[in-house]
Amino acid sequence: MQQKKVEQLLKQHDIKPSYHRIKILSYLLEKKNHPTADMIYQELVKEIPTLSKTTVYNTLNLFVEKNVAIIITIDENETRYDADISLHGHFKCSSCGKIYDIRLNTAGIIPDELEKFQIDESHIYFKGTCPLCLKKALS
Amino acid sequence: MQQKKVEQLLKQHDIKPSYHRIKILSYLLEKKNHPTADMIYQELVKEIPTLSKTTVYNTLNLFVEKNVAIIITIDENETRYDADISLHGHFKCSSCGKIYDIRLNTAGIIPDELEKFQIDESHIYFKGTCPLCLKKALS
DNA sequence: TAATCAAATTTTAATGATTACAAATTTAAA
DNA sequence: TTTAAATTTGTAATCATTAAAATTTGATTA
Ligand SMILES: [Mn+2]
Ligand SMILES: [Mn+2]
Ligand SMILES: [Zn+2]
Ligand SMILES: [Zn+2]
């Protein structure tokens, strides 16, 4: 996505598109790798040597508050972020660590039992071994 | 559940049923409240003044390793434990903090997209406001 | 242009959950 | 009883995240 589009997206969500914010959102949108705050920091600090990790945290918290990104918690003590805010699932491979996006047929995903509950967020994820790592394990 | 049953359960999973382990597993089984390690500690230390928080952590890690309990991660930086190891979902109320068990019709819960993946764990949870808190909010 | 002000970023320090490690205690076997 | 192994404890370390205060940036106004 071009920078202009990213700026648009930020503005649409009431966020002033500062240099850092554009960089961080671009990272999320392009990499689609569900990174931790630290992964983003380690990558961007190469380009922006003055970057502070607190800025990464502040920015991600702002994104979540303004619904530009969501938090994915699959493993304990490891907060990850996703700029794809649509309802979709994830699979984390315990071997290579990659987190895959899983498209769900969202119909009938909400249990009847929750009829009287107000649902703000739905999360579905799986853990195991991905096909690539399964193949490697054979050889 | 009586103490004998709890001991049985531990033995079945290759865990020597020490006093502390029985207490901690009993807590999980009786309360069914998906507690944090600290919640368990705070409650049990009343009965067992010499209890160490490290023991609670060690024991919970052992339970997870031996499949007597599972880890539930709904909110970041808050690891919770559940002695119900069957496939079921959860709902956490953002208002009162309670975590509800949700029975799922497990049929067709695994997306076709994961056919070639080896799935070890499935997690489904929702966040929002529970009926009790919704009612309170009205008045 | 220069002064002003708020927002954004940085720096440093604090917090809190979890783990590491070694010592002490308990349990069970020899 | 002796000894070794397992369990528990206490303390310190680690690591992710947040808090607070200082600095910088960038727009706005005089
Ligand atoms: Mn995703
Ligand atoms: Mn449960
Ligand atoms: Zn893999
Ligand atoms: Zn509630």
TrEMBL record, chains A, B:
> What keyword terms does UniProt attach to this protein?
Cytoplasm, DNA-binding, Metal-binding, Repressor, Transcription, Transcription regulation, Zinc
Q: Which cofactor does it need?
A: Zn(2+)
Cofactor-binding details, from the entry: Binds 1 zinc ion per subunit.
Annotated GO biological processes are: negative regulation of DNA-templated transcription; regulation of secondary metabolite biosynthetic process
**Molecular function GO labels:** DNA-binding transcription factor activity; transcription cis-regulatory region binding; zinc ion binding
Matching PANTHER family: PEROXIDE-RESPONSIVE REPRESSOR PERR (PTHR33202:SF8), ZINC UPTAKE REGULATION PROTEIN (PTHR33202)
Which family is annotated? Belongs to the Fur family.
Note the Gene3D superfamilies from the entry. 3.30.1490.190, Winged helix-like DNA-binding domain superfamily/Winged helix DNA-binding domain
* Record carries keyword Signal: no
UniProt xrefs under InterPro entries: FUR, Fur_C, WH-like_DNA-bd_sf, WH_DNA-bd_sf
Can you supply one Gene Ontology CC term for this chain's record? Answer: cytoplasm
State the compartments where it is located: Cytoplasm
Name recorded for this polypeptide: Fur family transcriptional regulator, peroxide stress response regulator
Q: Which residues bind Zn(2+)?
A: 93, 96, 130, 133
Q: Which superkingdom does the taxonomy of this entry point to?
A: Bacteria
